[in-house]
Amino acid sequence: MRETQPLFFLEKPAICRILDANLDRAREGIRIIEEWCRFALEDVKAAQTCKEMRQTLAQWHTADIRQARNTPDDCGTTLTHPQEETRENAETVLHINLSRTQEALRVLEEYGKLYHPEMGNTFKQLRYQVYTLESHLFSTSPHQRLNAAQLYLVTSASENLFSIVEASLKGGLSLVQYRNKDTDDNIQIAEGRKLCELCHQYGALFIMNDRADLALAVNADGVHLGQQDLPIAVARKILGANKIIGRSTTNPHEMENAIQEGADYIGVGPVYKTPTKPGKKPAGLDYVRYAAKHSPVPWFAIGGINRDNIKNVIASQAKGVAVVRSIMGASDPKTATETLLMAFANR
Prior knowledge:
Elements: H1 7-40, H2 44-60, H3 63-66, H4 90-115, H5 119-139, H6 142-148, E1 151-154, H7 161-170, E2 175-178, H8 185-201, E3 205-209, H9 212-218, E4 222-225, H10 232-239, E5 244-249, H11 252-261, E6 265-268, H12 284-294, E7 299-302, H13 310-315, E8 321-323, H14 325-328, H15 333-345
Parallel strand pairs: 1-2, 1-8, 2-3, 3-4, 4-5, 5-6, 6-7, 7-8
EC number: 2.5.1.3
GO cellular component, one term: cytoplasm
Enzyme class: transferase
């Protein structure tokens, strides 16, 4: 009686083709995610995690597996779907490639058990890493961090600009807007890039004032627009769907218009008289209370808010406040930031 060969040896070419295709698929998917972590989020840790996963996959992509490839006879190369032809935004790209990678790793885990004793467990652990990476990417998305922000620093011109901002970041600040209207574009770009990098090092969001083109140039998380600035739809075309766009408002009518235009957040004020808005009549706490009842998007009370009156603003149901002089003019910006944040903790 002829000895029957084990099933694996009869099907080894097919198994190697499956492993080859899914190793390629997983590596490609992770690379797409890695590029976003590196160039859009500037998240060094996440990018390094992706790189290490790709290296692990490459180690298992042996010559034995590669030699089984038979692309001309692969019936799957002609299969497609209309949804594959377009992508709505970068978030969609990430979701699709995370799912693709997870599916490929599951295939590698199961068929890998037939190829090598350690292969199944290796790809099981990689699959868990991708799940963790997915949670990290979408739990810390710019819009989610915007929703959680309580204190928003709007900068003013200062010789100590970078040291002030870094001190406030050390104090817990999570949202910074660079505003320096009276200087030329090259200086704004240079300072904006440095501030953007600084904010991202501390996990904070960085917004450029007024100029969507400059926000794009420095890779800011978004732009803040005044009432006389670009329409939000135009800024969105410049920056894309995933960037944050804010709009200043001084009354309910402007608030309604900003929300209808698609603002991701609004400024509400000026609450008190402030030298940054000379000649502008304060909107007062009544407008703060109105925003608390009617705004469906995040909003920040702004204008003359300091350590002495912030409790009144918070008592009027403000979940976030924006300040300029209270931090930029403080002798100790870190302590000033901590004090302002403490007012939210004690409400």
